[in-house]
Specification:
Elements (H helix, E strand, L loop, with lengths): L10 H13 L17 H10 L18 E4 L31 H14 L8 H31 L12 H33 L2 E3 L7 H15 L6 E2 L14 E8 L10 E5 L7 E3 L9 E5 H7 L9 E12 L14 H9 L7 E7 L4 H11 L6 E4 L11 H4 L16 H4 L4 H9 L2 E5 L5 H12 L3 E8 L7 H11 L3 E6 L7 H14 L2 E3 L6 E2 L2 E9 L2 E9 L11 E8 L2 H15 L11 E3 L3 H17 L5 E6 L5 H13 L2 E6 L16 E6 L4 E2 L3 E4 L6 E5 L5 H5 L1 E7 L3 H15 L5 E4 L5 E5 L8 H9 L2
Parallel strand pairs: 2-7, 9-10, 12-13, 13-14, 15-26, 18-23, 20-21, 21-22
Antiparallel strand pairs: 1-28, 3-5, 4-5, 4-8, 6-7, 8-9, 11-18, 12-16, 16-17, 17-18, 19-26, 20-24, 22-27, 24-25, 25-26, 27-28
């Protein structure tokens, strides 16, 4: 399982990718067994504690008898009111009405809630359920670092803006605080009441201080003395020792002290920053462990020996806390001059010390100490989150390195591989692609052909040029290695690196330096438009002609992500597509007017308008009494013109299925507006990341795959590409895979018109999981 946000590849996902790759898990096919019915035992304890907090669930709307029953998510993302718009006649409804739109940030928070619910789903192995908790923690970190921080900045600088939903930042922040507090409480209850006990049943124990045996306490004391005490730096607070400037998300303790030190100083508080070099989770050796794997938190080790940090003083209490800061980089395009990389390096130095947005503190911390911390960081009560356990649960991913329990994880599998690509090397691979297009769906099908495509080109004496875009790849990845080899082998290598890929900026700067040192030409795209398209263009001399070979994808060129994210890859030798991609690279590396392309759709120029045209054409077909259908699968849907076009198509009678993993501002199920639109979100073992646009097109279906989501930023402010699937057989395959998602009744959540998401609950014997079906159909 992965992080369930895209750039949203924060530390949790990167750590997970590293762990899975380093372990070199041999994958083998997972059988497509029917899922057992969910058990209620674990949920019972949790629900009992939350009984007084939960709002009454809205009634489930009447559904077709053949559709699965629905189960309501425990926490609702938005304040829900009866829609006044439901009482209006269709002709009276203005599609700009704020009631037709959900708030972007609250929809984002609802997605994180769905991720959290995976931790209580017994269809996932218990260590993977723990990983979902870690992913939720990491997702929430980024949500506060970027989204909440942005809302707070609007208030601070009096630049309040509303979206189509009409909510002002102050109200959005109020609702975020209300829901986020409930979600965090639920997160720790799941951890303490369900996950830890379940792991203990499997002899994986997180040992509390109160349960240490005499031998364990002795071992911890020795560990503290040898590994912690030499590098930890307690800071007593007084006029000569001001409150330290704490970096974003660092792990700290506030300690209450009593007494006078050697200099006669008397002050009640000290700060103890936990060294970042120390592991947050430590495995006890076998000689002091009982019944399997025994793990102890660094926080417990420091708590137990806090008095040794202040000899002669009385430690009244020690409480862990963590501060979250604004981590969004703001590189002013007017100040960049001719050096984007230099401007970005300068900005990266300040990222860890942005304005404060959230404070997490141990729930047993005294009120007076909490008040001091809030005052210190200029935060308010609604920015405070009391924690019943370790702060920063994402660091619990370390358990994957500390315990060898494959029986508590998903079964491994071997990705499928088309026969001609699996045996093709060098000339043979290019010959295979000349014969027909190849479509791969990762992770069910291997990413190896994409790496081989580039590696073969690097060594092929007939290849004269390679061009590629890179967004998230890694400076030492197989893709980067192939590009370095190609440059050293004398190929004309041009790489467009997007330096501003959030939280990958430093990695991309290192990658750019490595490629430049190898002799590649490196450019950074367009200053005001992020380059998000996924493209490889290989130019090969074949006899007297130069032939173009192309790879286009919906996801990043990252071998780790390709084992965790669902993405499509297309390998083609189509001359028109090759010419189109050549023109896109011309725009990125040089300066020119908009160049006309034949087959691809290209943001910010043609993609949005062509999507609107294709939606309008389906609406016209429906109004004429002809069959029509739209299926769109994206990570997020927020672009207002796109949403309004879908509303108009629904009003015309077009059946519309939207598979939107995360944010969705479109409100489905409104009579006279969106009653023909159904929105599903699939959450499962793999991060759903494919972007697909399907249109029935009067019995001549159009299928486009894309790097672009249905968001303002993708369609208006990024370099994106959507590419057609021209082979009818491949187009039918994509349609069939979309239908697999639509009929999923075990991992799909249905968006209701009141903003709630309800989990599809299969009837006995009717289990349909899209991810399991695809794994069965495509993996070896």
């Amino acid at each position: 399982m992965v992080d369930l946000v895209e750039h949203n590849a924060p530390e949790t996902v990167k750590t997970l990718e590293k762990k899975l790759v380093e372990k070199k898990v041999t994958e083998k096919k997972t059988s497509d067994k029917k899922s057992p019915e969910k058990k209620a035992a674990e949920k019972k304890t949790l629900d009992k504690k939350e009984m007084n907090e939960k709002k009454e669930s809205p009634a489930v709307e009447t559904r077709d008898v053949n559709e699965p029953a629905l189960e309501t998510i425990p926490e609702q993302p938005q304040d829900l009111n009866k829609l006044a718009i439901d009482k209006r006649k269709p002709e009276e409804i203005d599609l700009n009405d704020s009631e037709l739109y959900f708030n972007r940030e609250l929809s984002n928070l609802a997605f994180h809630a769905r991720v959290l619910e995976q931790a209580i789903d017994e269809n996932h192995p218990v260590l993977n359920r723990l990983m979902f908790l870690c992913i939720f923690s990491s997702n929430m970190d980024e949500f506060f670092e970027i989204r909440v921080a942005g809302l707070k900045s609007q208030l601070e600088f009096s630049r309040e803006q509303t979206g189509p939903d009409g909510l002002y930042p102050k109200e959005v922040l109020r609702q975020i605080s209300d829901q986020a507090h409930k979600l965090v409480r639920r997160q720790y209850r799941i951890l303490n009441d369900i996950i830890f006990p379940k792991l203990s049943e499997h002899n994986v124990h997180f040992i509390r201080r109160s349960l240490w045996t005499e031998s364990q306490a002795a071992w911890v004391k020795k560990y503290f003395r040898e590994n912690v005490l030499p590098i930890i730096s307690p800071i007593g607070l007084d006029p000569a020792h001001p409150f330290p400037r704490l970096a974003n998300k660092t792990f700290n303790f506030v300690v209450e002290l009593e007494g006078r030190d050697a200099f006669g100083r008397e002050n009640g508080l000290a700060i103890v920053p936990a060294p970042s070099s120390l592991p947050r989770l430590v495995k006890m050796p076998a000689e002091v462990s009982e019944d399997g794997d025994n793990l102890v938190f660094l926080s417990s080790i420091i708590h137990a020996h806090a008095d040794q940090l202040f000899p002669g003083m009385t430690v009244k209490g020690s409480y862990q806390f963590r501060l979250t800061r604004n981590a969004d980089l703001e590189v002013d395009s007017d100040d960049i001059g001719l050096d984007l990389a230099g401007a970005l390096r300068t900005e990266l130095q300040t990222r860890h010390y942005g304005s404060s947005v959230r404070l997490e503190v141990a729930e047993n911390c005294p009120k007076s100490v909490i008040t001091s911390l809030l005052d210190q960081f200029d935060l308010h009560e609604n920015d405070l989150y009391l924690i019943d356990g370790p702060v920063n649960l994402s660091r619990l991913l370390a358990v994957l390195d500390l315990v060898d329990r494959p029986d508590l994880l998903y079964s491994p599998f071997s990705p499928g591989l088309p026969r001609k690509l699996s045996t093709s090397k060098g000339d043979d691979m290019f010959e295979a692609i000349r014969q027909k297009d190849y479509l791969l769906m990762h992770p069910y099908e291997s990413f190896a052909p994409v790496i081989d495509f580039l590696s073969n080109a690097a060594k092929d004496p007939n290849v004269v040029a390679i061009r590629q875009t890179l967004y998230r790849t890694g400076a030492r990845s197989p893709i980067a290695n192939a590009l370095v080899d190609a440059a050293r082998n004398g190929k004309e290598v041009t790489v467009v690196i997007e330096l501003r890929a959030r939280f990958d900026e430093a990695e991309n700067l290192a990658l750019a330096s490595r490629l430049q040192d190898a002799g590649a030409i490196v450019v950074y795209g367009v200053v005001r438009h992020k380059t998000h398209a996924k493209m490889i263009l290989i130019v090969r001399r074949e006899g007297s002609v130069l032939r173009r070979y192309v790879h286009l994808g919906t996801g990043n060129y990252h071998a780790g992500n390709a084992r965790l994210y669902t993405d499509y890859s297309l390998l083609t030798c189509d001359s028109d597509i090759g010419e189109d991609i050549h023109k896109v690279f011309q725009q990125l590396t040089g300066m020119s007017k908009e160049l006309k392309v034949k087959k691809i759709l290209h943001a910010p120029f043609t993609l949005r308008d062509r999507l609107l045209d294709m939606i309008a054409k389906e609406a016209e077909s429906a109004r004429s009494g002809n069959p029509s259908r739209i299926i769109i699968k994206v990570n997020s849907l927020t672009e207002q013109r796109l949403v309004q076009a879908l509303y108009k198509a629904s009003q015309a009678g077009v059946k519309i299925d939207l598979i939107v993993r995360g944010i969705c501002t479109l409100r489905p199920g409104i009579k006279g507006v969106s009653s023909n639109i159904k929105v599903r979100s699939i959450i499962g073992r793999f991060l759903e990341h494919t972007r697909v646009y399907y249109f029935y097109n009067n019995r001549s279906p159009l299928v486009y795959l894309s790097s672009a989501d249905g968001m303002d930023r993708n369609l208006n402010n990024r370099i994106e590409v959507a590419f057609p699937i021209q082979d009818p057989k491949l187009a039918r395959r994509v349609k069939k895979e979309l239908e697999t998602y639509i009929t999923d009744n075990t991992q799909s959540w249905v968006l209701q018109n009141d903003g709630s998401y309800q989990l599809n609950k299969p009837r006995k014997g009717e289990y349909r999981s899209a991810q399991r079906t695809l794994l069965s159909n495509l993996a070896d």
